[in-house]
TrEMBL record:
Record-annotated RecJ OB domain positions: 444-549
Domain DDH intervals: 74-217
Keyword Hydrolase attached: yes
Name listed for the protein in its UniProt record: Single-stranded-DNA-specific exonuclease RecJ
Species name: Halolactibacillus alkaliphilus
């Protein structure tokens, strides 16, 4: 048995047979039922975009912006320091410049100013001669800053997409899909909202900005459905052919070719743009995106690339320290993990929190302690069942600052309130979450057979791209028998095997699943879930499954019979809930000793892995052991006895040997047994056994190593001899438990374990 790491959720695991039915099923999984909905999803068009005029306050905002331009007022664009923020800032800056505005941009420093507009920045902006501020991807929670701006005569137009709190800031205008009743799509990214304002200001659809829109939208992990799907689909095409020097340079240094997809942004472009604001000011990222000189862009791209490498090392070190804090006091982090430490770089704490969520399947708050200010500041990430924004707002009084989404948030906490916050969030989790909620949920789209995994299927699946939030890559369920199991990778932490079903095979790659190498065998069915991809090797393209999770629901039998050094492969990989037992011959290696079977049965504690090191004296004792302990995994690690005969001599064998003895009249055990062994190809222990049966039944008499047949023999069945009976039991045990094939042994074992009563020897022998 091998438990899944995740909770599998599905409507049905019955395989879908036809290719068209697979695509239809996936569309329905995404809530698309009508022909019109499916058409719009599969073929996104510019015409599907919503008129920005439906956004509340957008006309008011346009009037104010155009008035500022006409009056030569200076406009400041105030953005956020992540990829969504810098693309939003760039887009709005270029829009206003096209309109002839006197404008500049400003992104607060994460480390010296924190997130979003702040009163000090507002006063400085006013002092520098600006009369209007347009926020992008920020501002909806900047109550104090907006009040200060109003006091000093600075108009503020907010464009944002983050969660709205109970009240709204008193800004001049607020452009936000979630407060716009007439705007049907509520899930735009910050750059999507900025694009809408740009379109409304310019009076046409500025497709040239779609390369920025797609980067910010994918990087901010908003749902890739509805209008976002249209923007991303069009944006990917724009990004493939972009002439923007900054993006050309960034694509080159990230190793991205012309055929750009959502993964190139999610793993290549987005993290590099994010790295800038995580380590310092985000302005170099904006400078890269607005650069018109390729040489300058290449230099900026290299600098940003180096910063991303540095960011990766910082994340690795902080994650290591955070895990150590959790492990040092697990009870304190039982439901919600709240870790805090001095000198942590707050710019990367969101990434660290995400890693800890994956590691522990708990909501995580990672905070950098600032003792001189008496605060802790950082980021949080959550599991599906725990709404960070909702639960954080329920204890809002414990935060200095708080804002974000259901699954991600940023916050500042007074150090004195940190223990109370930890206690409050853990209490909420304890009262609202079940044990299953702490296991990552995976929604399985469809079950398929291995025979259906074709290049054509993958080609059809790509019609559902771009994939992302609310439109994930299709997750498939398959089952089969693993073959050619091996560890791969420089550090051997990954797994590769072929999944075989009805003579069809597909290669499976499991990153991070290397330890499973010791927990799979090539004879039992495994269930897997994963994503399909194309592998290209030597110009040959084939389908492969990228493993997401696996499980074996039945008891596993690992066959190490006859392996002399089995302990080298078995012992290093056993968990603490394992038991090594013997029936008659104790086992010991490097201080590890086996326990006698009786002692283990009497203790009757739960055993996940049961290792049997020798053969039993009766079949019932073996069955009783396995039935009592009910191990998930059974390891058979015994050798054949030295006197093993494998098969009982046949009646003809007995007849031939007895006839030979009668003919000789005097059978010298040492000499004649060797002659018979060479002539018949029998082992000496077989000959000895037959002679012992003759002796017990008084067919012969043995004196000083010489065997002489009795002249008058009472006819008796061979089976009545005690030595025959004992050998019969011994041979049956060896035949089944040692010499049988894996499948024969597994079939017998499952039958024996399903029996309610203790099995009689005769029934076992008859199987």
């Amino acid at each position: 048995m091998l438990e899944s790491k995740m909770k599998w959720m599905f409507d049905s695991l019955e395989p879908v047979n036809e290719l068209d039915a697979i695509i239809e099923g996936l569309l329905e999984q995404r809530g698309l039922t009508t022909a019109q909905e499916k058409q719009a999803f599969l073929y996104p068009q510019v015409e599907d975009l919503i008129d920005p005029a439906h956004l509340a306050d957008i006309d008011k905002a346009k009037t104010r912006i155009l008035r500022a331009i006409d009056n030569n007022e200076q406009i400041m664009i105030l953005g956020d320091y992540d990829a969504d923020g810098v693309t939003s800032t760039t887009l709005m800056l270029e829009t206003l410049r096209e309109l002839g505005a006197m404008c500049d941009c400003y992104i607060p420093n994460r480390f010296t100013e924190g997130y979003g507009p702040n009163p000090t920045a507002m006063r400085q902006i006013k002092q520098d001669g600006f009369d209007l501020v347009i926020t992008v991807d920020t501002g909806i929670a900047a109550f104090e800053s907006i009040d200060v701006a109003n006091e000093i005569g600075l108009d503020v137009i907010i464009t944002d997409h983050h969660e709205v709190q109970e009240t709204l800031p008193a800004a001049y205008a607020i452009i936000h899909p979630k407060i716009s009743e007439d705007y049907s799509f509520k899930a735009l990214a910050g750059v999507g909202v900025a694009f809408k304002l740009s379109q409304y200001l310019l009076g046409y659809l500025p497709e040239k900005f779609l390369d920025l829109v797609v980067i910010g939208t994918i990087s901010d992990l908003v749902p890739l459905v509805g209008e976002n799907r249209v923007l991303v689909t069009l944006g990917l095409k724009q990004l493939q052919q972009t002439k923007r020097p900054g993006l050309v340079a960034l694509k080159h240094i990230a190793g991205i070719k012309d055929d750009v997809d959502e993964e190139d942004i999610g793993f290549g472009i987005g993290p590099r743009l994010n790295a800038v604001g995580r380590l310092g000011s985000a302005m170099p990222a904006v400078k890269l995106l607005i650069s018109e000189d390729l040489e300058e862009a290449n230099q900026l791209a290299q600098m940003i690339h180096d910063m991303n490498t540095e960011r990766q090392e910082i994340v690795k070190e902080i994650a290591k320290e955070a895990i150590a804090l959790v492990e040092a006091n697990p009870d304190e982090h039982r439901h919600v993990i709240v870790v805090a430490k001095e000198d942590w770089n707050e710019g990367v704490l969101g990434i660290v929190a995400s890693r800890l969520v994956r590691e522990y399947q708990r909501p995580v708050l990672c905070l950098a302690i600032k003792p001189e200010q008496g605060i802790a500041k950082g980021s949080a990430r959550s599991i599906d069942a725990y709404n960070l924004f909702e639960h954080g707002m329920s204890v809002r009084e414990l935060f200095v600052h708080f804002g974000g989404h259901a699954q991600a948030a940023g916050m500042t906490v007074e150090l004195g309130k940190l223990p109370y916050l930890r206690s409050a969030l853990n209490k909420i989790a304890e009262e609202t979450l079940s044990e299953e909620d702490f296991k990552e949920h995976k929604q399985i789209d469809l079950a398929v057979d291995v025979s259906q995994l074709t290049l054509e299927l993958v080609s059809q699946l790509n019609r559902l791209a771009p994939f992302g939030m609310a439109n994930p890559k299709p997750l498939f369920y398959l089952k089969g028998v693993p073959k050619d199991i091996r560890k791969i990778g420089a550090d051997q932490t990954h797994l590769k095997f072929s999944l075989e079903q009805n003579k069809f095979q597909v290669n499976v790659i499991g990153f991070g699943f290397g330890e499973d190498y010791f927990h799979l065998n090539q004879n039992q069915t495994i269930e897997v879930i994963g994503y399909l991809s194309i592998n290209e090797w030597n110009n040959v393209r084939s389908v492969q499954l990228m493993l997401e999770d696996r499980k074996i629901s039945t008891q596993q039998l690992f066959d190490f019979r006859g392996r002399k050094f089995w302990y080298k492969d078995v012992l290093p990989h056993l968990t603490g809930d394992s038991s090594i037992v013997h029936f008659t011959q104790p086992f010991e290696h490097n201080g590890i000793k086996s326990d006698h079977v009786v002692d283990v049965i009497n203790q009757a504690y739960p055993v996940r892995n049961l290792i049997v090191t020798d053969l039993p004296e009766s079949m019932n004792s073996f069955v009783t052991l396995v039935k009592t302990l009910k191990p998930d995994n059974l390891y058979l690690c015994y050798q054949a006895p030295l006197d093993s005969m494998q098969m009982m001599p046949s009646r003809d064998d007995f007849k031939w040997l007895y006839a030979f003895i009668l003919k000789q009249q005097q059978f010298y055990l040492e000499r004649d047994a060797t002659r018979v062994a060479e002539h018949k190809g029998w082992k000496h222990n077989k000959i000895k056994f037959m002679i012992d049966v003759f002796s017990e039944l008084e067919f012969v008499k043995i004196t000083d190593g010489v065997l002489i047949p009795h002249s008058a023999v009472k006819k008796q069945p061979l089976e009545t001899a005690d030595v025959y009976k004992k050998q019969q039991v011994k041979t049956d045990i060896e035949s089944l438990l040692y010499y049988s094939s894996y499948q024969e042994l597994m079939t017998w074992l499952l039958t024996a374990l399903e029996s309610e009563d203790s099995l009689e020897e005769e029934k076992i022998h008859g199987l």
